[in-house]
Sequence to fold (680 residues):
Amino acid sequence: MAQKTSEKKYWARSACPYDCPDACGLLIETDGKEIFCVKGDDRHPVTRGFICQKMAHYEQTVHHKDRILYPMKRTGRKGEGAFVRISWDEAVDEICTRWKALIRDYGGECILPYSYAGAESLIQNKCGEGFFNRLGASKLIRSICSKAKGAGFAQAYGDTPGIFVNDIPESDFILIWGCNIKATWLHASAKVVEARKKGSHVVIVDTYETPSAPLAHETFCVRPGSDGALALSMACVLKAAGLIDRDFLKEYAPGFEHFLDTLDDYTPEWAGSVTGIAPERIRALALAYGRAKAPLIIFGSGYSRHTNGAINTRCISALPALTGAFKKKGGGYLGNINSKGAFNTDRLTRPDWDDPRIRSINMNQLGQALANRQSPVYSLYVYNSNPANVAPGQRQVLEGLSREDLFTVVHERFMTDTARYADILLPADTSVEHGDLITPYGSLCIQAIFPVIRPLGECRSNWDTFCLLAKGMGFKEDIWDLRNEDLLEEMIREPNPWRQQWDEESREAFAHGMGVVLPLPDPLDFKTENKKIRLYTPDLSEPVPAYRTNKSMRATCLGKNDWLALVVAPAMETLNTTFTERKALCLRRGEAALKMNLKDAADRGIKDGDPITVYNDLASVSLKAKVSEKVPEGTVVAEGIYPTASMPGLFGINALLSQDLSDSGEAATLSDNAVKVVPY
Ligand SMILES: Nc1nc2c(c(=O)[nH]1)N[C@H]1C(S)=C(S)[C@@H](COP(=O)(O)OP(=O)(O)OC[C@H]3O[C@@H](n4cnc5c(=O)[nH]c(N)nc54)[C@H](O)[C@@H]3O)O[C@H]1N2
Ligand SMILES: Nc1nc2c(c(=O)[nH]1)N[C@H]1C(S)=C(S)[C@@H](COP(=O)(O)OP(=O)(O)OC[C@H]3O[C@@H](n4cnc5c(=O)[nH]c(N)nc54)[C@H](O)[C@@H]3O)O[C@H]1N2
Ligand code: SF4
Ligand SMILES: [Mo]
Fold:
């Protein structure tokens, strides 16, 4: 694809690699050395020519004056950000010399990789796992995001992906659950708008009125973590009103009677006292959902970032089973998609090199792992992530990163808070500087991308960097000779049963870098072992979906006290800490603030815009109060993640988040914390 725009400039096809369900197809104006302009690919089946404000000026990220372009070595204190340029040879030599000595003295387990989804594209995202297995390093449990939701779905539906995002307008009743869809899933949100125009009823269940609220006819603001109670109560109403599809359940959900038998106690009156929603609204919601022809639930992840996140997923996802919603096009659910199976990821993760005796460390407990003196981590290698800002327990994380006996390597595009703690800093390239595979978690539309420009400065892709380090460590396998683009070609060429169902035209389009939709599965072909939905699973500790309280509810509802439930939510203008290099976006986002209800603020003598102190047993954080009727009493919300330098105090909001894990999936419980708030 090389359509000329002027003598030297042309449009090249690419895709957005960032951690977003849309995975937009992009058109990039370039002269092969520089990129000038970025727009949505009008031929991409999901993107259809429009993209978000974050990527609209991607050229400002790629050619930003603050890009890290060369390897560097720390000269100042840890955290200070003072570095001197060195060569790649020096950097690799220093890293490998240190690692060889550490492995000799303490074993490979004292080295810990830390990564998440800085680049969500398949090769750059997964390739480190193979390298660190080969090294014998500690394994990282990558569960900072939606693993509780994943575990809940796995227990109920296995890998059943749900509907295709473009089919949203086929639904006549859309329930958006714990998702700020306008900010975080732009193309699903556009389809919701389309559905509304066709007459669909739209409802949001969240903890506050988010920027997505105008999309919906109604928002239900629940107490954080109480969603299971709302869902079970809806089920109770459906049963009482005879809106259960028993024929569907008999065929697709054996043992369902055990679940139905538990429902009668979950009355709307009971759920009202738990969720804070009036019983008559719960009843009306359930009846409208149950009477719809093709009701759809769009799952975000927010409701699952709690100590009861997995079981709440089972409670909510039981609703489409009870109503047989899967039978109608547009009905069922959306939010359990994994398109990585279109490629052989074992090439990247190398399970054959995984030594089961080696310990695993949960990424949500980085602070604890760095504080552990029994079996210490002596080296940390960070790529695709910014743990100094994003991980819970920020105070302990920063203390750990400051340790003089910790050798930290960070592979980054910008001087993030984490990069400031690096001993060696390596320059990472961006998605227009390397090829990769795009396998979204919001649709089954996959794409191959090829380099648009050469890497800037001395930047290298994650894969090419691991190959250099492998050589430095003396690894002899042939795979380390493959360049990033060779690996991409091999992965595309490798036959795959899913992609093999494509016709010739689709195969051609994919090979030419177009976004192409994988063959969509039959919605009634449930991807569990026995092909059935599991509403009753006797081998689980909770055989049927049940209500379990979360941690913040226990703190905030204990008699009359002044604890508030703290929810962390995404910001419109940034993506976790990605895009925080962009001044215009940060200005639009505004400074770090805590949204709180008028009454909660007044009770504490706080006015809109006042400086406040937010604290719990973990830390104390200074913020501005944003007093708003959009947040219900008892809940406070912090949107976005801010670089620590932009905070009035020493810490960001993540200092107030515990390192506790979810009920299943070992996931983060980022929105399950209680805080007290006082004027500064
Ligand atoms: N603009 C933008 N886009 C993004 C991101 C971003 O930061 N900014 N992040 C990206 C990433 S990494 C992800 S995982 C996705 C996440 O996309 P979402 O799933 O939309 O985001 P979440 O952070 O999970 O939070 C969604 C909503 O859940 C609500 N919530 C929290 N607790 C509860 C609860 O107990 N019950 C209910 N009902 N709601 C609750 C929050 O108030 C929030 O509005 O978005 C991706 N896209
Ligand atoms: N308070 C609060 N905390 C949160 C969240 C929240 O909403 N609020 N969201 C949570 C969620 S859902 C998630 S998924 C996590 C996200 O946590 P992270 O995945 O750590 O997300 P980012 O902050 O975007 O940091 C990604 C980093 O990867 C770098 N990067 C990008 N591309 C590449 C590449 O190709 N190679 C290398 N080496 N680096 C690259 C970027 O420059 C960026 O600094 O944060 C979690 N923490
Ligand atoms: S961040 Fe999301 S909406 Fe924006 S361009 Fe990337 S994939 Fe599309
Ligand atoms: Mo995430």
